[in-house]
Specification:
11% strand; Ferredoxin Thioredoxin Reductase
Length: 246
């Protein structure tokens, strides 16, 4: 599968159609966009990418199962706006799993929360070597924990491999500083042994946009014999540390 050029006329045209689709969904159901523009941008680009590749706006926060259209239909892949979001996630949580569609109440509360976090957030570093080693044994990590582990790694206290499981264009748009490998979910089985050869006994941390694709990758890697795989549960959208483009 060839990487899609996010600057191509074809992709930009599909992205424009996707934003029209997002506006239509919001108007139909009374939703609003997430106050975090980076969340919306990442999801919209993922939807546009999936539309070009698969012909449908499959949810970009989940692995698309099936090689053919028949297999994809049988796998019941989420198509935006997906039934779980409309029937459960948004009514109960105020937002869909990917975070782009929100109730007005959720968006207002989230905007206030983000404003407070920007003021009061402090780096959760200062781990001892023992604490860092224990943290690496956790199944799920939050953004502050990963930030602290990256700092510990930079100080030579611990070692691990940080793996981005999103697609190439998402990586180009933004990735965590310190990322060692890119293993796109769409090419997982073709790339994992090539990119992570010899690391089955070493600590590995995986991340994606919201933590869903990387969660699936985490369990797939365990099935392949990788012994120490941590997942960044909120994904890059919940990481407040240093990121970069390109």
């Amino acid at each position: 599968m060839q990487p899609i050029d996010m600057n191509s006329d074809e992709f930009q045209a599909e992205l424009e159609k996707t934003w029209t689709f997002v506006d239509k969904v919001n108007n139909q159901f009374g939703f609003v966009l997430n106050p975090n523009e980076e969340v919306n941008e990442g999801v919209a680009m993922g939807l546009a990418r999936n539309k070009l590749i698969y012909g449908k706006r499959f949810c970009p926060c989940f692995m698309v199962i099936g090689e053919t259209k028949e297999e994809q239909k049988a796998a019941d892949n989420r198509i935006c706006p997906c039934t779980p979001a409309l029937e459960k996630e948004i009514p109960e949580d105020g937002t869909c799993h990917c975070g782009i569609f929100c109730t007005p109440e959720y968006a207002q509360a989230q905007a206030q929360h983000d404003a407070i976090e920007e003021v009061v957030h402090q780096h959760s570093g200062g781990l001892t070597k023992e604490q860092a080693e224990l943290l690496l044994k956790e199944e799920q990590l939050d953004g502050d924990e990963l930030e602290a582990l990256i700092e510990a790694k930079s100080l030579g206290m611990i070692g691990f491999t940080l793996v981005d499981t999103r697609e190439y264009m998402e990586y180009q748009m933004e990735h965590i500083v310190g990322t060692d490998k890119l293993v796109p979910t769409s090419q997982f089985y073709a790339k994992v042994e090539e990119e992570l050869a010899g690391l089955k006994k070493e600590p590995i941390i995986v991340y994606c946009h919201s933590g869903s694709r990387s969660y699936q990758v985490q369990h797939a890697m365990k099935g392949l014999g990788f012994e120490h795989v941590c997942n960044l549960r909120p994904g890059i959208i919940g990481f407040s540390g240093q990121t970069q483009r390109g």
